[in-house]
Write the structure tokens for this entry.
Amino acid sequence: MKKLSSLALVLAVSVSLTACGANSENTGNNTGSTTNETTNTGTNNAAGETAGTEELVPEEGASLLVWESKEERPFVEQMAKEFKEKYGVDVRIEEIGAGDQVTKLTTDGPAGIGADVVLFPHDNLGRAVSAGLVLENDSFAEEAKSENAENAVQAVTYDGKLYGYPRSVETYAMFYNKDLIATPPTTMDEVKEFAKTFNDTKANKYAFMWDIGNFYFSYPFLATTGGYVFGGNGQDAADIGLNNAGAVEGAEYFKSLKDSVLPLKSGDVNYDIKKGLFTGGTLAMNIDGPWAIGDLKKSGINFGAAPIPSINGKASVSFSGVKAWYVNAFTQYPNAAKLFARYASTKEAQLADFSLTGAIPANNDASADPAVSGDELIKAFVEQFKNSQPMPSIPEMGNVWTPIGAAMSDMWNEGKDAKTSLDNAVKQIQDANAAAGQ
């Protein structure tokens, strides 16, 4: 959640006035007067992809500014070098956290000092589109749709239009201590059985933990059995599925875990506490994201990763996030910007990103590459991602977290009725959405 909504899901700056984006006179979508195209059948394009019958040509004198976080700068530096060699276009990089870029683009884009190409988690897309900050991915839409995981493409699509160039994905899965449990359970019922003989509250020994009070991590207990946040691929705010029959079924199962698996109040199981127990060797299984791998390796524990155990016979459905490139709607060089976004999101580019930063590819072929599929830890997250749902990117998602989080806590801590709790949460969400629309 911290990564996805900063996140981050949802999760973080000054910018040089010499940015090679649009100047203050360029205040619209400048894709017409500066666009040059040339017929090119079968030419190898960015990072190994094959172009169609027409390939974009960078505008004369084009240069680009790209925003990227400090952690992933090595990857973008490599892409910038290769892009310069191929297209003769200089690419400068400025360190801006992915979760901060839409906020910064809101002011810097119209002012003509924003980056030409930006990167942010998909749950910020609705805000960016509503403000007119990003261009559609039109020139490379077919490539993006055919090459990347379907739910990754869905995540970077808004109101039926594709805007993003998918680059990486993330969700959460189950880490397990191999010295405490040699074979990870595949069902939540198996987790219950293991907990009967393993749990020892006096010794702080627990079989299984997740951040109970954080709806991001508790979502599988509603979604796996048929609940959902918003219908219409997460974009229909009028269709809320958090209190349907499937969600109620899952909530009842969720409640059952307090006595059988984790006999603690939700407030006693936060992210840092459970991470400490896991690295300390008294927690057998821990739900967390791939961002935790580095620290877990440093801890020295003997651990593995696996998909989240199934719930009531169904594969667990987690929330997922997708990072993608987007082209600033105010860029002076839309052709060059689109070419870079494409170049830095191909299979080859995503494999380079994985090699340099550990980012999990959105590209199907890259995910299947031995470098990725052969990594047992990453493989678990790739498998879990296949059963994930992108967090809704519409602005109404902001009205969901508090009411549904409170409902989950009430059910867990006080044993309140699942249907009543979920109905109350949905009513609060609906009221908040209605108030925002007035």
Observations:
- The chain has a mean pLDDT of 88.
- The chain has two domains: 36-170+321-390, 172-319+393-437.
- The longest strand covers residues 318-327.
- Residues 172-319+393-437 form a domain with the D-Maltodextrin-Binding Protein; domain 2 fold (CATH 3.40.190.10).
